[in-house]
UniProtKB/TrEMBL annotation:
PANTHER family assigned to the protein according to its UniProt record, in alphabetical order: CYCLIC DI-GMP PHOSPHODIESTERASE PA4108, CYCLIC DI-GMP PHOSPHODIESTERASE PA4108-RELATED
Protein name: HD domain-containing protein
UniProt cross-references to Gene3D superfamilies, sorted A to Z: Hypothetical protein af1432
Top-rank taxon, per record: Bacteria
Annotated source species: Paucidesulfovibrio gracilis DSM 16080
One Pfam family in the UniProt entry: HD_5
HD-GYP domain sequence ranges: 137-336
Coiled-coil ranges per UniProt: none
InterPro entries: HD/PDEase_dom, HD_GYP_dom
């Protein structure tokens, strides 16, 4: 039978993480990746227990789980970068560690999901996809219980473009906008988890077909040739082909992949759809895809101001004006 956990002294968690046994067990048994501190209850002060570079004794490895279970083991928030990197490789730990601040969890998701996207876009095969899928499901579990948590992630959008960073930005902005529009549904438990999971996949993976476009074309600063532009225009179809090879048949994901470059006025591609022929998720993804591209630094363009970018999309009849206006409200009123 484990001992009762102590009450953490006021203010202590502002400087230290109080770790639990699940977090402890994720560390190397003898060489944890960061300093560990032990709370001396009689003087209510933290004392060094282990320093990085050393090695825990066998006796320490045996007593440490029980001390942790009692709430007596801490790590310094000064080691935040190390802690973030560690948990980003075992993302489900963010659902366990109740001492992490919301902004710290946002840092962990940003690092973990961007890395997983890089791995998948570099090698889009089933085993790599499964790792990305697992981490995205941790994100949906985290957000569906409180969609307002996505705001901390919105404040961590990447400022420089790469395909993985763009996919991360689009995933977060798309979920933030959807959550803003349907806040009441989330708060009342009316959002189906299966739909939310598939929406998340669609938003994060909508541009997967761009991984098949040669990098020299993507990074080209001068105007594209006709042949080069045609290769760009084919990337939604490449994305659909990739889904087929992965045996993924979710309609929500297919709509985001196929329709994110379609435009309401018929000027988009690859199928020149217009108006009601474009799904609601296709419209959402199209808006998010363009806005996220406009606000990041690319090799051929400087980033636009975020509000200037959304105003440009509101004025463009190729996009859903109502959605664009909602994005503007989200940026102005809810993310100050």
């Amino acid at each position: 039978m484990s001992a009762a956990k102590i009450d953490v002294p006021e203010g202590l968690n502002e400087e230290y993480y109080q770790i639990n046994t699940d977090i402890l067990s994720s560390f190397n048994k003898f060489r944890p990746p960061l300093d560990i501190f032990f709370l001396k209850e009689d003087v209510v002060r933290l004392k060094p227990y282990y320093r990085v570079g050393g090695r825990l004794s066998m006796e320490q490895t045996e007593e440490l789980p029980e001390l942790t279970n009692q709430g007596l083991i801490f790590v310094s928030r000064k080691d935040h970068a190390v802690y973030v990197k560690h948990i980003s490789y075992q993302l489900d730990l963010v659902l366990i560690d109740k001492n992490l601040h919301e902004r710290e969890i946002a840092d962990i998701f940003t690092q973990a999901l961007t890395r997983r996207l890089e791995e998948f876009l570099d090698q889009p095969v089933k085993p790599v996809f499964q790792k990305l899928y697992t981490d995205l499901m941790v994100l949906t579990e985290y957000l569906i219980t409180d969609i307002h948590r996505v705001r901390a992630l919105m404040r961590r959008l990447h400022k420089e473009h790469s395909l993985a960073r763009h996919c991360f930005n689009c995933g977060i902005v798309g979920l933030a906008l959807y959550g803003f529009i349907y806040t009441n549904n989330f708060e009342e438990g009316g959002v189906r988890r299966k739909f939310f999971d598939r929406l998340t996949l669609g938003l994060f993976l909508h541009d997967m077909g761009m991984s098949k476009v040669p990098k020299f074309i993507v990074d080209k600063e001068s105007p594209l040739t006709t042949d080069e532009r045609n290769k760009i225009l084919q990337h939604p179809m490449h994305g659909v082909e990739m889904l087929a090879k992965l045996d993924i048949k979710y309609p929500e994901l297919e709509q985001c992949v196929m329709e994110h470059h379609e435009r309401l006025n018929g000027s988009g591609y690859p199928q020149k759809r217009s108006g009601d022929d474009i799904s609601s998720l296709g419209r959402l993804c199209a808006l998010v895809d363009s806005w996220c591209a406009m606000i990041t630094k690319r090799v051929y363009a400087e980033p636009m101001d975020r509000l200037e970018a959304v105003r440009a999309l509101i004025a463009d009849n190729g996009y859903d004006t109502g959605l664009a206006q909602q994005l503007q409200v989200l940026l102005v009123e809810r993310l100050k």
